[in-house]
Automatic annotation (TrEMBL):
Coiled coil region boundaries: none
InterPro entries per record: HATPase_C_sf, HATPase_dom, Heat_shock_protein_90_CS, HSP90_C, Hsp90_fam, Hsp90_N, Ribosomal_Su5_D2-typ_SF
Region of interest (C), residue spans: 553-628
Keyword list, A-Z: ATP-binding, Chaperone, Cytoplasm, Nucleotide-binding, Stress response
Protein purpose: Molecular chaperone. Has ATPase activity.
Name of the protein in its database record: Chaperone protein HtpG
Domain (Histidine kinase/HSP90-like ATPase): residue spans on this chain: 32-191
Entry's Gene Ontology cellular component terms: cytoplasm
Quaternary structure and interacting proteins, as annotated: Homodimer.
Native source organism of the sequence: Sphingobium indicum BiD32
SMART domains: HATPase_c
Taxonomic classification: Bacteria, Pseudomonadati, Pseudomonadota, Alphaproteobacteria, Sphingomonadales
Length: 628
């Protein structure tokens, strides 16, 4: 046992803007105030689970009270509601760290979201931004937290009215639970119903009936408690005994979200290793979907004992999945670090990942609309697996959906794409960028449209990476429409496409030679294009060079010291090119025209002219000559 030195009460200020944040939470956003109770019960259950885990290595922490429990005590006469657990508890320092810091994901981001959604009953925001405890101020004028950490001889009290400050003070051991935490809510006048049995029992059964810790309700202080939730592990029950609403309630509890699951996967694996899996795909995007740390959200249990919520049960590209895995084969006495290196966990990882991808494929085959909702939310993350997970790449390609030059407002699968391959087409063509509208009007697509060749339009940043690692589908490699040659002449034009106008090849060749010389140092080559049908020029990357969009992305991140020189392609059938090819004026004018063509191609590619002043001067000279 350790003893803390008593200290006088201390008053602390919340971080900046917290009083405004809490005011917005209470008065502007949330109409369903019931969510506060789910949050406090979830916190209590987590504390019990943490103690159960630490008690494996240190049984003395459990003392003579080894069974976890949560109690809810009503005091309608005093307008109080108390939530108490016999979990791990907190020291005064723990209170300052966990209860004195609001919205660890960033107060500003949270407040921006609140302001944007003001007036909406969007209770998802609590779970998304980690401020669940503070939802208590929606119903309480004052919140007191009495706690005693397991294995210590000191207790402390955290107290706040949610208006900007809080105090932490040591208290006598008789004022705190023997172990764990007691949260006392002094209810607002319009929230006194939360001290009534009917209201509290209804909320618990509807929202927290499946937490893995028994919940007892006392109708008044010192009364005998009635069990309102038995703490049975939902994931160990047969699917036939669980309703969709049961799953939804458990999802909200385990995931900290307030939407409904878009898809639920529940099964028990038997064989060499036995484990139960209950996972959910959210209906909406979690706020931290693109967090650089990219941690997963799968809780790991061993024989119903919570071990950790940071075990890498799923690969990072499935980090949006919520839920748990309960193993009967992992040893309870292993450290979390040793568990992560366990061959048993490796087998579980492989099995759960494969099953989840298989279930997604089944959903895609049986209910395309439901699957597309998942893809629209999480497709950009799933595509990370195309880059990271070679073993499952083919399965992920089967799940992938794309916008394309043929999809309209819908989505296309690679199965759809391959079924519509044109005669002599040997590759799957794609274009990357950051704007779908601009991508769909890129001049580099013109030759492909003229031949009825579908081009995948890839606007996500991750698309710049997975397309570069040698991905193919059914023997067809992926090929960028802005890189290298195209061999489009082998594919016939569509029936409704007019043959290109034939140009004076000698004149065009002469202009190309002049342009190569004039643009030396700015481009690596100037050549006739197979891509263009209506535009005069476009830029492409060399065959052995990097795709232009990836090159731009790396350059903007400072990871590309020197970009490769692009190739300027010219449409010899374009009326402008035909006129330029026969210009016989001074070389100065022809040089201006060549540079203006290059800048025109840059602008069509979403770039700026490389030298804005020189561009303006050339344009000025050309306009003056036109009006002379």
């Amino acid at each position: 046992m350790t003893t803390e030195t008593a200290a006088p009460p201390e008053t602390h200020a919340f971080e900046a803007d917290v009083s405004k944040l809490l005011h917005m939470m209470v008065h502007s956003v949330y109409s369903d105030r019931d969510v506060f109770l789910r949050e406090l019960i979830s916190n209590a259950a987590d504390a019990c689970e943490k103690l159960r885990y630490e008690g494996i290595a240190t049984p003395a922490l459990l003392g003579d009270d080894p069974h976890p429990r949560i109690s809810l005590t009503l005091d309608p006469d005093q307008g109080r509601l108390t939530i108490e657990d016999n979990g791990i508890g907190m020291t005064a320092a723990d209170m300052g760290e966990t209860l004195g810091t609001i919205a660890r994901s960033g107060t500003k981001a949270f407040m921006d979201r609140l302001a944007a959604d003001a007036g909406k009953a969007d209770s998802q925001l609590i779970g998304q931004f980690g401020v669940g405890f503070y939802s208590a101020f929606m119903v309480a004028r004052e919140v007191e937290v009495f706690s005693r950490r397991a294995g210590t001889d000191a207790a402390a009290c955290w107290r706040s009215d949610g208006l900007g400050t809080y105090t932490i003070a040591p208290v006598d051991l008789t004022e705190a639970p023997p172990r764990g935490t007691r949260v006392v809510l002094h209810l607002l006048d319009d929230a006194k119903s939360y001290a009534e049995r009917f209201t509290v029992e209804r909320i618990v059964k509807a929202q927290s009936g499946h937490v893995p810790v028994p919940i007892t309700l006392l109708e008044k202080p010192d009364a005998e408690g009635n069990l309102v939730a038995d703490g049975a592990a939902l994931w160990l029950k047969p699917r036939s005994e669980i309703s969709e609403e049961d799953y939804a309630d458990f999802y909200r509890s385990v995931a900290g979200q307030y939407d409904k699951p878009a898809h639920t996967i529940h099964y028990r694996a038997e064989g060499r290793y036995e484990y139960s899996v209950l996972t959910f795909i959210p209906q909406s995007k979690p706020f931290d979907l693109f967090d650089p740390d990219r941690k997963g959200h799968i809780k790991l249990y061993v024989r119903r004992v919570f071990i950790t919520d940071e075990a890498p049960v799923l690969p990072r590209y499935l980090r949006f999945v919520r839920g748990l895995v309960d193993s009967t084969d992992l040893p309870l006495n292993m450290s979390r670090e040793m568990i992560q290196d366990s061959p048993v966990l490796a087998a579980i990882q492989k099995g759960v990942t494969g099953r989840l991808l298989g279930e997604l494929q089944k959903l895609a085959d049986s209910d395309g609309d439901a699957y597309l909702q998942i893809w629209e939310n999480f497709g950009a993350v799933l595509k990370e697996g195309l880059y990271e997970d070679f073993e499952r790449r083919e399965a992920l390609l089967g799940l992938a959906r794309f916008k394309s030059t043929r999809s309209g407002d819908g989505w296309r699968s690679l199965k759809d794409y391959v079924a519509d391959l044109r005669e002599n087409q040997t590759a799957i063509y794609y274009a990357t960028g950051n704007d779908l509208d601009r991508l769909s009007t890129s001049p580099q697509l013109e030759g492909f449209r003229a031949r009825g060749i579908e081009v995948l339009l890839l606007p996500d940043q991750v698309d710049n990476f997975w397309t570069t690692v040698g991905v193919d589908h059914e023997g067809k490699p992926f090929k960028s429409v802005t890189q290298g040659g195209t061999d489009l002449t082998l594919i016939p034009l569509s029936d409704d496409t007019e043959a290109p106008v034939q140009a004076d090849s000698d004149a065009v060749d002469g202009f190309l030679a002049f342009a190569r010389n004039a643009l030396a140092g700015a481009v690596s080559d100037v050549r006739v294009s197979e891509r263009l049908t209506s535009s005069a020029v476009c830029l492409v990357a060399p065959e052995s060079g990097m795709d232009r969009q990836l090159e731009k992305l790396l350059a903007s991140a400072g990871q590309l010291p020197q970009a490769a020189l692009p190739i300027l392609e010219i449409n010899p059938g374009h009326a402008l090119i035909q006129k330029l090819a026969v210009v016989e004026d001074a070389d100065e004018l022809k040089a201006d025209l060549a540079h203006l063509l290059l800048d025109q191609a840059r602008i069509a590619d979403g770039e700026q002219p490389s030298d804005a002043r020189a561009f303006a001067e050339r344009l000025d000279r050309l306009m003056r000559r036109a009006v002379d």
